[in-house]
Amino acid sequence: MAEQARTRGQELHVLARRALRGIRELPSAPSVVDAILDDCGGALPALAARDEANDAHNTAVGTAVALIATDPGHPACDEVFAWLLSTDRPRVPRSNYATSKISEWLPAGPRVVNRMLSAADSELTFIARLRYGTATPAPCWPDRSDEDVRHRASKLPAMIWPSWAFRLLPVETDAPVAGFRRACSSLMLLPGTNWDYL
Q1: Closest among 139, 99, 145 to 121, alpha carbons compared
Q2: Fewer Cβ atoms within 10 Å of its own Cβ: the N or the C terminal residue of the chain?
């Protein structure tokens, strides 16, 4: 029970902070967010250091938006969550969307992170889509234990079969085939990696 309460509190805290940031920084918000602001006196939340809800008004507005974003029965749930996705802080463009933005979502807990990954599917690289399972009904952040990784590694051959190495090897390369096979085998054993074989 305590664990569920802590997880729920994390979800609401992270999403409420994102809602407060979005209200102040984004040009338009869903109509339900405008309705919440009207119900809370019609004033924008006070600007707070580090996006913290430092007073009752900020807490009420942020939490109300977070509750809607996590309530599948609310008609504006998906619209509000999509709006919260757009509140990501600007970053230098990187090749891997998930790893550059996921750190902001991880404190929200697995349910919110899995939902974020599902929504981000179209922006992910092919490797990231496989890693997080975003094209499946249940995307998730990998959480394999050391034992899981060792068990998975025991299923791999000592080296990738020569026929597969030749199929994967770039046409114009000077890389030795044996080294390429070893590199492919090694990369398969690194969960969560975004390395490739140049």
Answers
A1: 139
A2: N
